[in-house]
Amino acid sequence: MPLGEEIRGHLPFLRRYARALTGSQSHGDHFVHTLLEVIVAAPDEIRSGQGIRIDLYRCFHRIWESAFIEDGEVDGDAAEDPLVRAANRRLARITPLGRQILLLTALEGFSVEEAAIVTGTNVATVESLLDEAVADLDRESRTSVLIIEDEPLIAMELEQIVRDLGHRVAGIATTHDDAVAAFERSEAGLVLADIQLADGSSGIDAVQDILAIAPVPAIFITAFPERLLTGNRIEPTFLISKPFRENTVRAAISQSLLFTPQLAA
Length: 265
What we know:
- The chain is α/β, with parallel strands linked by helices.
- Helices cover 54% and strands 9% of the residues.
- The chain has helices at 3-8, 11-22, 25-41, 52-67, 82-90, 96-106, 112-119, 123-138, 152-164, 176-185, 203-211, 246-257, 261-264; strands at 144-148, 168-173, 190-194, 218-222, 238-241.
- The chain is globular and about 55 Å long.
- The N and C termini lie far apart (48 Å).
């Protein structure tokens, strides 16, 4: 199979990872574009015998690592974004490598052994950094979360996860109009939104209207994440797949809160 065909199916999920890591669609997609340019220039670099998925993330890690300054800020355009600068200052107690490992394992589903290959470390280092990152995230500021989900059982599961993480539930909405109204009544600092809602309305549209009221972070939940990770239009920064795991939701919530104006200062 041609290399381009092997890579194509993994790109949406690499974009998801890059966006979560940078807290920005544009910055994350820029890193993925840079990766593709490196692969075009030196295609043999992508072949390690570990499998194309691991090789892609391993090469991405090298690019990300080369872009990081020791104090945790990113070179280039990302360094000009005040929210990214502030968030990276707040990440001083979580090393960039520890943050990567958390997202690799919780969001992208890599095993500890695979994360060690991706990051060029060893299992003991990965386990140690992962423990430190999780402990630091447990000390993060708490917020109130609005859940937009029309499936009662999924909404209940999300509510339980949010509460178990120490956050409050601002409300549960099942439609676009209910979501906007619930947000206006609450002091929600985060939105968890399904894409398809009960009355045929869109969770994306609901979040866009909510963001017009206040700039809160939003995490989208969908059974078809690749449809929202094309890199060809305005798309979500934080996205998790159905069915989801508790640690995936936990990592996404904690990561998204690092890039909010209120919590990143």
